[in-house]
Write a structure and sequence with these properties.
Elements: H1 2-36, H2 39-64, H3 66-80, H4 82-89
Length: 114
């Protein structure tokens, strides 16, 4: 029975030593990685990697939904061109030839006094 305990103790020590060596290697790799770049560089690297991932995903979605993308772009263009389009269908001059002033009392609606 004592031989079984010694064998198990020897196995446990070997496992402990292997774990300690792995931990020391991980710490050494982490220190080497952190000493190579500053915090700002690492932060910018992560942000740029995230931005590239988002851009790649957006390109994939746009390629899969070209009709929706074309409709969205057309809607945005119409939105920015809304004032010239509206001016084609409205007349901004009064009968006298002067520009309509919508702040005149003729156009102002007063609430009814009750």
């Amino acid at each position: 029975m004592s031989e079984n305990k010694f064998r198990r103790l020897k196995e446990d020590r070997a496992l402990r030593d292997a774990s300690l060596a792995l931990l020391k290697a991980d710490v050494a790799n982490l220190r080497a990685d952190l000493s190579g770049k500053g915090i700002g560089d690492r932060l910018m690297g992560r942000i740029s990697e995230g931005a590239v991932d988002v851009f790649d995903e957006a390109v994939d979605v746009a390629n899969n939904n070209r009709g929706v993308l074309a409709t969205l772009i057309a809607a945005i263009l119409v939105w920015f061109a809304r004032n010239p389009i509206i001016s084609l269908f409205t007349d901004d001059e009064d009968r006298d030839g002067r520009a309509a002033n919508y702040d005149d009392e003729d156009y102002r609606q007063e609430p009814d006094a009750a």
